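During the reporting period the student researcher (J.K.) took over the structure-prediction task from the postdoctoral fellow and processed the backlog of single-chain submissions. One of the processed entries is reproduced below for the supervisory committee.
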Amino acid sequence: MTVILVLATFVVLLTLEYFMHRVPAPQPAEQLAEPKPPRALPEFVAGFALPENLSYHPGHTWALSESPNLVRVGMDDFAARLSGNVASIQLPQRGQWVRQGQKVATLLRNGAKAEMVSPMEGIVSDVNDAVQLNPELARRDPYGEGWLVKLNAPDAKLNFRNLLNGMVARRWMEEAAARLRLMVETAAAALAQDGGVAVEDVSGLLTDEKWASLMQEFFLS
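J.K. obtained the following structure tokens:
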């Protein structure tokens, strides 16, 4: 009987010790939403924004791959500032075939017009209707809300090889800015203000005839 009482007491003591010193089970950590990386600000070259994640056509349009065959197209900052406050921007129809280096947009200003060439080849899958309703979007935000069209480009990889990026794009933009300064005397002061950042509307310094001439010169149209 004594042995049974001793064993019972021992079991009770072990049970009490277990509950007193038991380590609580770890609770699952609260799932926190992964923070979004901050949006990188575009680098400025010779006074013009030149995002490194884009590829550029020498006619001052850009291309961004959204999927293997879907490419977003727009005008670069140089084009946006040079074109200025245009009356309208005409874009191709959805389903239309556009060739690399051929017309993708027509800009109209006071009876003068300028054409921009496509950096890619493909079928127009989407058009930025907002830009056609409000051309100011293309000048104010050429790399964002001011994009022009989206293309279904079957030969996208081959087309991208013909475009400029990295150090080559930087040198090209520097040369374009230097040419503009030489061709337009008043542009030299405009491009040099604010530490080298170009004014929003370089076209405001130009007559309609000079504007059309420069647009043809730089847009390769």
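The committee noted the following: The CA atoms of residues 100 and 120 lie 4 Å apart.
J.K. will present the remaining backlog at the next meeting.
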